[in-house]
Amino acid sequence: MPAKKRILIYAFGNPGRQDDGLGNRLVEELEPWLREKGFDQVTTESNYQLNIEDADNIKDKDIVVFVDASIEDIDDFHLGLVEPSAGRSEFTMHAASPAYILALCIKLYRKHPETYMLQIRGYEWEFLEKISSRAEQNLSLALDFIKERITQEDFGANLSEE
Predict the structure, then answer these.
(1) Are the C-beta atoms of residues 28 and 12 closer than 8 Å to each other?
(2) 20 to 30 A from 105, CA-CA: which of 8, 86, 113, 121?
(3) For residue 105, is pLDDT > 80?
(4) Which residue range is the domain that position 31 belongs to?
(5) Per the domain annotation, does 1 fall within a domain?
């Protein structure tokens, strides 16, 4: 059943730095599936980094899922709720954090989409346009996971069990 809520899957990272492109690849692989299944309310975006203009991009969405590679010691991937924060950058080398973009959206537009961060574990960060084999496995698991979430009535259900 197609998603009823307006969902944005927004990946950011540098595909030229091996596993840093995990989020971008997830969106690239997700798009054909979304079209095939008729998920017209689910849109995707991919960029090198988040920018303050992205507050405008998320304002009309019910759910936003930011996707990025992670150097953190997590399992294959991790989905967590994003809380708004006025801090410019948190745990990221990118220009603006998802928490900051969400806070800006709330401040400027008085809109608060349900916002998540999907981190996919990466291992290699050299200047190559190739995802490492271990990260490819994590990407596959994360892709299956996000597809399952999109089909659920409550995207964030049982989040504490992840």
Answers:
(1) no
(2) 121
(3) yes
(4) 7-156
(5) no
Interval 16-37: pLDDT, tens: 999 999 999 999 999 999 999 9
* Alpha-helical regions (H) of 59-132: 98-109
Element (H, E) at 51: none
Task: Give residues with Cβ within 8 angstroms of 58, minimum separation 6.
Answer: 8, 10, 64, 101, 102, 105, 111, 113, 115
First vs last C-alpha separation in the chain: 23
Task: Read off the CATH number of the domain in which 78 is found.
Answer: 3.40.50.1450
Tokens of 115: 């916002």
Report how many domains make up the chain.
Answer: 1
Q: What's the CA gap between 24 and 130, in Å, rounded?
A: 12
Query: Which residue shows structure tokens 């801090």?
Result: 87
Instruction: Kindly state whether residue 57 falls inside one of the protein's structural domains.
Output: yes
